[in-house]
Amino acid sequence: MKPTALITGASSGLGYEFARLFAANGYDLVVTARNEVKLQELQNELEHVDVTIVPKDLSQPHSAEELYKELDSKDIQVNVLVNNAGFGLTGAFDKLSLQEQQDMMQVNMTTLTDLTYWFLPEMKKLANKGEPAGVLNVASTAAFQPGPGMSVYYASKAYVLSFSEGLAGELKGTGVNISTLCPGATETNFFKTARGEKMKLAASAMSATVVAKAGFEGFQKGQRIIIPGRTNAAGAVLAKFLPSSISAKIAKNLNSTDS
């Protein structure tokens, strides 16, 4: 029986690439996103594996529990959870919509945490049987410093990284692998959704295919933190040693749309 990977935000970008990678490496899939049409297209494309589609708006407070119970009712066991869904918003904190920022926190942090909570006990049991088991959380290089102009987004990704590292420590020796992918700018719909297509940061975006491959391979190897690209990795290391005020100034410049 094939292992199953649950991938959130699977309709495009990194989620789509993760779906293709896991399918190519012997996994059946559960894919979720708001866009049911895109999920159906993915299901048709990956016809060589069993793909279960679950349209879901993860900005809704009880969406994680609903997703878990729906899969449980179908006797679908999840070996690997890929918490990929997330989005950012550019602009001054007090000028952005409060509701949009609350939705961002719900998707980026709360639903990610809830999904991990609901599926983790099952993963422990599967790991005890010698089956692959783990969580791949998608954070960002934004997790390593404050980010003026995207303050809530940067803070949400810092949460993802800290939560993942803590969980990895708790689960050491259980066979359940916890990895965090921390990409820099990536060629997805991120900047369009964030209304930041003209940000300086967008100019250095890496291919989503390359980033997803690095994340998948790092997860398979049991890496705790995966940072694709030498420049991104060097920046993350540098951010640890710089005063936060300096890191924030650098981030503010990268988040800027000024030429």
UniProtKB/TrEMBL annotation:
GO terms for cellular component: membrane. Pfam families: adh_short (PF00106). One of its GO terms (molecular function) is oxidoreductase activity. This is Short-chain dehydrogenase. The keyword Oxidoreductase applies. Keywords: Oxidoreductase. The keyword Lipid metabolism does not apply. Belongs to the short-chain dehydrogenases/reductases (SDR) family. Coiled coil: none annotated. It comes from Pontibacillus yanchengensis Y32.
